[in-house]
């Protein structure tokens, strides 16, 4: 099933998600649907709040469905180490028309549970690091516009208001 993606300023996007506690078939169906929604939107990551479900759950696939080894399911994710700095353009499926540079750590180590509840750790550099930080922000209710400089954020918010007025948001 392909979900409709929730757009800013829906309040579900700004609320920290509830911890995932049940690792059952229902959760695995949700994970499969989140991957399907990500691919249909040509994204590389999606967090549960973006489909209106306030849970600490996110899926990432940098290969966009081409390599099953790239599929990452992260329930209750936590950044346990971060190093360095990168400043690169980011987008978000909840802000389709906005792309902007955001400061992130260059490398992160993340601890999370998979769709069966098993804990694991994953290291990310470059794009994967950025994606992990972006999606973990989502499960914390933090949006990438709030990682931008105040100037860029105001420009982005102004652009959104204009699109809303024109009925294109
Ligand atoms: Zn996003």
Mean pLDDT: 97
What is the structural class? alpha+beta
Radius of gyration: 15 Å
Could you list the spans in which at least 5 consecutive residues all have pLDDT below 50? none
CATH superfamily: Peptide deformylase
CATH topology: Peptide Deformylase
CATH class: Alpha Beta
How would you characterize the overall build of this protein?
With 169 residues, the protein is α+β, with helices and mostly antiparallel strands. Helices cover 27% and strands 25% of the residues. A five-stranded antiparallel beta sheet has the order 1-2-3-6-7, sandwiched between helices. The chain has a two-stranded antiparallel sheet with strand order 4-5. A hairpin with a 5-residue loop joins strand 6 (107-113) and strand 7 (119-125). 33% of the residues are buried. The mean pLDDT is 97. The structure holds zinc ion (ZN). Zinc ion binds at residues 92-94, 134, 138.
In a nutshell, what does this entry contain?
The protein has helices at residues 25-40, 126-139, 150-165, and strands at 45-47, 57-60, 72-83, 86-90, 100-104, 107-113, 119-125.
């Amino acid at each position: 099933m392909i979900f409709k993606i929730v757009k800013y300023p829906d309040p579900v996007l700004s609320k920290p998600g509830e911890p995932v506690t049940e690792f059952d078939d229902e959760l695995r169906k949700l994970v499969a649907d989140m991957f399907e929604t990500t691919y249909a939107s040509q994204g590389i990551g999606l967090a549960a709040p973006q489909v209106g479900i306030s849970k600490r759950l996110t899926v990432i696939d940098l290969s966009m469905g081409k390599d099953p080894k790239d599929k990452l399911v992260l329930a209750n994710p936590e950044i346990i180490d971060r190093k360095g700095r990168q400043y690169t353009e980011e987008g978000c499926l909840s802000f389709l028309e906005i792309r902007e540079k955001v400061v992130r750590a260059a490398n992160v180590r993340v601890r999370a549970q998979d769709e069966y509840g098993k804990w694991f750790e994953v290291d990310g550099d470059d794009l994967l690091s950025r994606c992990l930080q972006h999606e973990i922000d989502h499960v914390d209710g933090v949006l990438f516009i709030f990682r931008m400089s105040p100037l860029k954020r105001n420009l982005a918010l102004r652009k959104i208001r204009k699109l809303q007025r024109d009925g294109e948001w």
